[in-house]
Every structure is written in structure tokens, then in C-alpha cells.
Amino acid sequence: MKIVLGLFTTVFIIVTAMFLKLPAGVRFYGYGAIRELMKVHTVMGTWGMNKISSEHFCVRFLPDKRAEAEMVLEVAEQFYRPVRADFCYSTRGKIPVILYSSKEELNKSFGWEAKESAMGVYWAGTIRVLSPEVWAGDVDEGQVKDKFISSGPMAHELTHLMVDYLTGGNYPRWFTEGVAQYEDYKLTGFVIGDPAASPGRQLYSMEELGASFDSLPDQAMAYQESFAAVYYIVQFYGEDVLYELIGELGQGCSLSQAMENVLNLNIMQFEKEWRNHDIFLVSEL
């Protein structure tokens, strides 16, 4: 198996290197094929894990995590239908979900440092989630499932998957993060933090969010701003406009071009308009 994975990785690296040299239009349409290769590679890496399936998902887990795997599968199916309805997109085949027993194992799967504290991650057609019991911490055993539904990662990560497939990977990180948080808020009421509780913090510009979202020092602020921007779009232009923007990204437009086509504003004009309003209107929720 290790030999097969090694050969697969070598082929993948060569194909990716060739892919990156192609014109932008070809890269856009080839992204889906590369993503499926990466998904197959990820699933092959779970060789030996147990698995259970439903209509839309296949959860892979270690033998002592069956009860939690069943919970993850049930919650994933619970969110699939409303998310699919909102984005008007049905996935093909079962979505792989990999269950990790600890933060260290989840971080290791991405080569992240131990200090990272992600509860779930979407990447290349696959959703990876931390064990609900580990994730819930000190929550009573009987309340873990309710906690996992109300503030767990499934609706959020499934939304990332929808945006990725609809746009062919053509989106800024802050935008997909804002959309995922908005969908999560819409379905569960969950919001990451309240910026109004820490007045005076430095705001990031759209340029900063777009250029280096994941490496900005104040990650809480970056996430809150991304949600606030998407929430502003929905509140002032309507939810259908949000899906129109995603559709424009799917046609290969940049986000600024998409905003010009749909909002009649480029991204700098949008930022100015947004900041002239209460940027954290969401804090009033």
C-alpha cells in the first residue's frame, strides 16, 4: 500500500506542476480533475480504517470511534438537504468524511503545528472532523450530540465544499469563510465571537483579507470581518445576490469582477460602502 501511495504522490506532484504552467482558463476547468485526484489520494491514505455510509456521505474512523462516527454521519445527513437547497447543487458520489481521535492527529494530517485548534477542515473534496467527544470537552455525555449540531463543524465544512465545487476553486479564502459562517449562522444560529466585545481592535482591509487571510495575526478579527462582509451583502442586496456572486466566480470571474457584474461595485467600492455602514452589524444579532 505504501508503494502505491508513493507512486500516486509522485504522479500527483508531476501533474500538479504541469497544471500550474497552463493558462488561467485551462487551470480553471482542470481544477475539478485535480481535486478528484487529491480526494482519491486522501481516501487511499485512510486504508485500514473502518467506514460507514449513508446516502450522501462515507465516514471513515478507527474501530473504537463507531458511536461517534454514527453521530457524525447522522448530523452530516441532517445538514445536507438544507445546504443543498440553498446552493441548488447536488454532489456526485458520497462525500468522504474522516474522523480524527485528537487535535494532534487532525493537525498532523495537514502538517500543521500542534497549536492549531481546528475542529473541522474541508480540503479537496474531503471533510475532516475532530471526534465530537474531544471537540465537546466538558459537555455532559448526553448533550454532546446537541452541541455538535448547534455549534459543530458539519454545516460549515459542507458549505465550503459547495462553494469549492460551484466555483471550481476560484474564490478568495475570506469569501468562502464568510459564506460558510453565514450558512452556519442561518442553520444553527452559531456566530464566531462578537467583535463589539473588543472595541478598538485593528480592522483588516479587503486587500489584506484577500492577500493573506490565513496568516493575519488576529485570526478572530479576520474571521469576524469575513462573516460581517457576507452578512452585509445578504442584508443590503439579498441572499440571491450572494448566490449570483458565487455563480460569477464559477464562470471564472475574479471576486472584484463578480461584484462589478452583480453589485455594480468593484471590491474597493464595496469595501468603502460596507465601511460606511456599521461594519459589524452582525453584532446586533
Provide a descriptive summary of the structure in words.
The protein is α/β, with parallel strands linked by helices. The protein starts with a helix and ends in a 9-residue tail after the last helix. The longest helix is centred in the first third of the chain and has 22 residues, at 66-87. Helices cover 60% and strands 8% of the residues. Helix 3 crosses helix 7 (154-167) and helix 7 (154-167) crosses helix 8 (173-188). 33% of the residues are buried. It is globular and about 55 Å long.
* Major pleated sheet: 5 strands, mixed
The best one-word shape is globular
Following the backbone from N to C, one meets helices and strands in this order, namely: HHEEHEHEEHHHHHHHHH
Distance between the termini: 51 Å
Strand order, sheet with most strands: 1-2-3-5-4
- Mean of residue pLDDT? 86
| Percent of residues in helices | 55-70%
Q: What's the Cα radius of gyration?
A: 19 Å
Number of helices: 13
Poorly predicted spans: none
Number of strands: 5
Judged by helices, strands and strand pairing, the structural class is alpha/beta
Percent strand: 5-15%
